[in-house]
Amino acid sequence: MEKPITLFVLIWVVLSCLVSCQRPEFVNVGAVFSFDSVIGRAAKPAMEAAVSDINKVAKILNGTELRLLMEDAQCNVFLGSVGAFQVLGKEVVTVIGPQSSGIAHMISQIANGLQVPLVSYAATDPTLSALQFPFFVRTTQSDSYQMAAMAELIAFYGWKEIIAIYVDDDPGRNGVAALEDELEKNLSKMYKMKLSVSFDEDEIMNLLRKSKLLGPRVYVVHVNPDPHLRIFKAAKKLQMMTYNYVWFATDWLSATIDSFSRENRTSLNMLDGVVGLRQHIPESSQKRAFLSRWKEMQQNGSVGYELNNYGLQAYDTVWAVAYAIDRFIDEFNNITFSSNHELLEMKNSELQLGQLKVFNGGTDLLNKILQTNFTGLSGHIQINQDRNIDSGGFDVINIARTSIHTVGYWFNSLGFSLLPPESLQGEQLNHSYVDQKLQNITWPGGKMEKPRGWVIADDERPLRIGVPYRASFVEFVTKVNESHIEGYSIDVFLEARKLIPYEVPYKFELFGDGRSNPSYNELTRMVAKDVFDAAVGDISIVTNRTRIVDFSQPYAASGLVIVAPFSNSKSSAWVFIKPFTLEMWCATAASFVMIAVVIWILEHRVNDEFRGPPRRQIITMFMFSFSTLFKTNQETTVSPLGRMVMIVWLFLLMVITASYTASLTSILTIQQLPSPITGIDSLIASDWPIGYQVGSFAYGYLSESLYIPRSRLVPLGSPEEYERALRLGPQKTGGVAAVIDELPYIELFLAKQSDFGIIGQPFTRGGWGFAFQRDSPLAIDMSTAILQLSETGKLQKIHEKWFCKKGCPEEKRQKSEPNQLNLTSFWGLYLLCGIVSLAAILLFLLRALRQFLRFKRRQILQASPSIISPSTRFSHVIFHFLDFVDEKEEAIKRMFTQWENPIPPISSERSNP
User: Could you tell me whether strands 690-693 and 738-742 are parallel, antiparallel, or unpaired per DSSP bridges?
Assistant: First the structure.
């Protein structure tokens, strides 16, 4: 009995060993995807071709047949999930797919429980790489890489704001979230516009219309592959495929258009100017051979569409799974499943959950898949630590008319290049961003110049500009009627707007009731809250406002100043100088010297008092001139010309002395209110009330920065209230010791007041600017325009238009003190005196010259011919003339009389009687 039993045991052990060492006859691999989709139409024949190729090669799987069990998801998450359950119930060792990230999220937990690896060639949702899904492996690139490429592409062209259009499902939301994270690295901003999963044309049109109300014109479209290109069709209908717009698309677009047959390429017309990304697949002999094979399949009717990158990756995915199964069988020899007791205990037989079995070698097969390392049709296939395929980079494509152009390449460690990544692998991986280049791109509208990529406003939604409705100082901003607002600030804005190189539709909206000045802090807060797009007016640029809005370049200098009554000037020892300006004093002194010289010339020949030694003549000359001021001159004028000049001079002197006396009297007698304030420190130290303008930031600054008690601060709403409060003084109810306000307001106030003045210098520095929402590109362009206005002098002309009709306020403040007389008031009298003096000198010279010529002719007639020299020098003539003029007039006349009436000579011999 023992021998048969022993023999039986031995036979049983031998047979068990033979069974366990024998490779399985076949192995099941599941595949869940949408057959009738852009990706599925290329993936299905590609995977069938891969299975056929694998089963023909003896060196892989070594006789074990690879069976691919495919289920159609029909582009539906629910049906796709049902299909996944169906293939999992057929003892598959791996599920290829799912194509949809939504299905992958749903069945990944089931795969974890059944320990069946999921290997997807099309699910790009970045969150599938989470540790929550340990059995999920990806043989395509995650959207985290694609969105990094997209963000760098946007930054490459310098755009800071974009609009992302996406489907509101897991891959759409998570892909756009990855893009947002990448954009934040470049300090860029993104607006999200979501579509439903089953969106139609009406939904797209409504969404695009809403997007036009936003500022950016750079769109990133991240949706599922759409052979009808519905988004771009709607954009073309809305005239959004013009030069003002920029359209980027993720790789769904490249997969879609690569699948188009040559007959369908005419639909590319609506994509003119679109820029997209395509997963980079290097050229190889394997790829070229498979493309030739694909064309043969098209010719024999087994394939009706073109091949896209997802088809190549689906082919390689089947090979990757086959390699992993082959290594698994070589190591473990067999594939076994076991039932899940928890599923068996569920009594619901209709679900047939008992068919779902746990793959005992699932973890080991997963490890084999993660060790994948081979070169396939789509390039080198290697899985990284995130269970994603190592990124091979992206092609940057540009659709121009009906052609697709590759304008460059992107690799995560190299940036953008004109050469494919495989040709740069030998170069430095830290490629300089300065060296990044792309070929010229044809943008929407057919232009090569880079579009601006944003608009501030358009005719449908003009820029909403808040304007303060002032009750005082309306020269800066004022409402003329219901449709017209004007003022200094408005003119500056309108002139600057002309220099902005694009159209900015706008509408002014008044802020305030017009009965009192509005709060400018509240106005800037309304800009920050998007009630207004901008604010234009006399808005001071202060710290608390710059925290919430962006300001333009200041267009007017500002700063807080103190205005108070003038101190009494009678105590000055040099008050007698104040009636005349310096120019007036100089002109008056020069006129005294001129009169002295003119009278001396005219009186020297006829008046003995102006003759004598040179020193005496100089003293007499100037004493006579200056003594006319006091009417005490002892010398008298004799010549008619001298008397004529003296008449004009005395008239001028009378007007000047009378004006001087009146001005000095005004300075000495007009009482000015005293003010002991010397500056801001003395004002803070006192307990006097201080006035401030309603709505100004001065109230907050004085109370919060200078810690002046708010009980001391008196609100004033107009220049009239300034004057009344200052005249009342700090001792009376409603009066103030000083008013603190911004310099432009005070200058305008002082232009109409002479009894008040600025004490010291501005104790804050600042300026007025226009407020814009944070990161508004218009703030930069408006600043540039304001600088151009300043450089060309246009800004000063606007200022003069509003404030210099009767003299600019700042010029008046810089000019001489009140009651001073300047030269412009007397230049007519000075001119008259000069003309009369010059005419008298000319008449005198003409008369002297006539006498000199007469004298010379007589001298020539009386002289002998031998004495006359024909070559008398001109200088001798001049000297003779001066000597002649220096002679006394009476002596010259006596000499001429003797020549005309000569006395006969008396004979020396007497005649004889």
Answer: parallel
